[in-house]
């Protein structure tokens, strides 16, 4: 029976006939959930890849040209300028993401050398060697990030992952009697970070060569941390 063959049927009867001829089979609840998830998950994956590409391009370009324009970063990332602003509403937000990426890379490098193995002094020297290998091309980026306005604890937050690992290493050395325990580990860790910045600044200014700065940093940090009695045995 076809609906058009019975034009005189009341609406309710025609609806009943339609339902018999063309039954509707609703999806189970679980299937509906799967359908709802497919597009958002794919969209989120694309967004994550796009965001990561933008940050990668920003790290590379800003390291050589701190005044690099958003359009150049977008082109290097293979996206449009509008896409960049869809992820980062301002240049400051993008720079914050760049700082986070650089910090994550530094933390990964520290984790790779296993600061829990061997004596605290040996681990400290490994840490300083890894820090010295930080690519010189990133220094303009670091200087630019350091010049940005930040909240009072902004610099502390950005260094927290690195300083935290260094502080735990210093505590281990203090407990083992390798490092001077008269000062707090946090103070000593902060001092070591600032000495690292000073060594980089001297190289950038041309007052010291890279190897000279690395040696000066090692000697100064050891004099800062190592117990006076142990220093006499050097």
Structure description:
- With 234 residues, the protein is mainly α.
- Helix content is 72%, strand content 0%.
- The protein has eleven helices and no strands.
- Helix 2 (29-64) packs across helix 5.
- The longest helix is centred in the N-terminal third of the chain and has 36 residues, at 29-64.
- The chain is elongated and about 95 Å long.
- Residues 1-6 and 151-158 have low confidence and may be disordered.
* Order of helix and strand elements from N to C terminus: HHHHHHHHHHH
How many distinct helices?
11
| Residues in β-strands, percent | under 5%
Q: Give the strand tally.
A: 0
Q: Structural class given helices, strands, pairing?
A: mainly alpha
The parts where pLDDT drops under 50 for at least 5 residues are: 1-6, 151-158
Give the overall average pLDDT: 78
Q: How would a crystallographer describe the biggest sheet?
A: none
- Gross morphology: elongated
Radius of gyration: 30 Å
Q: Considering DSSP H and I runs of 4 or more, what fraction of the residues is helical?
A: over 70%
Alpha-carbon distance between the two ends: 103 Å
